């Protein structure tokens, strides 16, 4: 197996629209960061650097055969676990009650959970592919769920509840796409629903501090009582975000003479450049700008699903479904939190939010997704036989969809 599979590539199959959509989101996010940033933090300069490196990463990874990357799935799985464990080591960095970063001398901080999204998709897709002939066995499905649970639980312990939810639902989407029989899926889902209900009851009990931190419980309770003055101190960040969204109107304040940072509601929202960047989009570019941003995110998800449908094999389909699910779920959670439709739990908006780790993780996922699209099934007629990469159906032993 070679790193590149140029015989299977065709320039006309290169997903330029997918790349352009992600780049447009990068540039919109850069503009937002340039307006709302504190100049002392130099987030604008860091974001420019991250976008430039990200473009290089996308182009480079998009021509690397995803089969070659997935070949090292066990090593990637171990690397993923190792990075997540490092946040609990002496080089781990805590911000308030969360330990989500590791300090790298002269390079700054790295957030392993952002890379974990990419690594989990690749490794779990490879595991599904490895056991694809045994997915109708409950033992196999439990084994796959256990493999996914290890990194997910490490992310939960940081704690990073939003990423935990995204990774869990992504695994469920991949499991559904793998065509596991309903006789296994339905009982498993029922057990999961009962388990989640039990955990929610448990964490609501006084004094529980093992799985969920006190501030996370308080945020959830405050979300259930948005108008209660007793929880005003917990809801103020989301209240400001909603006010900023409403203040933007139809076309926002981008072309207003009062587009000074001090006059923006979003400028005083903590994490406005990352977890609450959608509020800044709404206030600065208005409802129209929100439509464009959500349209671009939706375009990436839809293209990802189309790539999955045309993927040359089971492995490619699983990778494309996993990446599309992560982009969709992160967008839903980020927008839902900003609009106060979900409890306050931070997660970046794909391809837009500030943060080098998030940019690199997104770039890796986009590059692999584009490579899957670059190798979609080619059907040609030759003496009544369909060909796949030059092989007749009789010589190809893989799955056909």
Please give a handful of descriptors for the protein shown.
401 residues; mainly alpha; three-stranded antiparallel beta sheet; 13 helices; 6 strands; 60% helix
Topology of this protein?
Blueprint: H1 16-36, H2 43-62, H3 66-70, H4 73-86, E1 92-95, E2 98-104, E3 108-110, H5 112-130, H6 138-156, H7 161-177, H8 182-203, H9 214-224, H10 232-248, H11 277-309, H12 314-338, H13 356-374, E4 381-382, E5 385-388, E6 391-392
Antiparallel strand pairs: 1-2, 2-3, 4-5, 5-6
Nutshell version of this structure?
This protein has 401 residues and is mainly alpha-helical. Helices cover 60% and strands 5% of the residues.
Mean pLDDT: 83
Strand fraction equals 5-15%
SSE run: HHHHEEEHHHHHHHHHEEE
The helix/strand class is mainly alpha
Radius of gyration: 22 Å
Tally of contiguous helical segments? 13
pLDDT < 50 runs, ≥5 residues: 378-401
Shape: globular
Structure commentary:
This protein is mainly alpha-helical. It contains 13 helices and six strands. The chain has a three-stranded antiparallel β-sheet with strand order 1-2-3, with no helix packed on it. Strands 4-5-6 form a three-stranded antiparallel β-sheet, with no helix packed on it. Helix 1 runs antiparallel to helix 11, helix 2 runs parallel beside helix 13 and helix 10 packs across helix 11. The radius of gyration is 22 Å and the shape is globular. The protein starts with 15 loop residues before the first helix and ends in a 9-residue tail after the last strand. The C terminus is likely disordered.
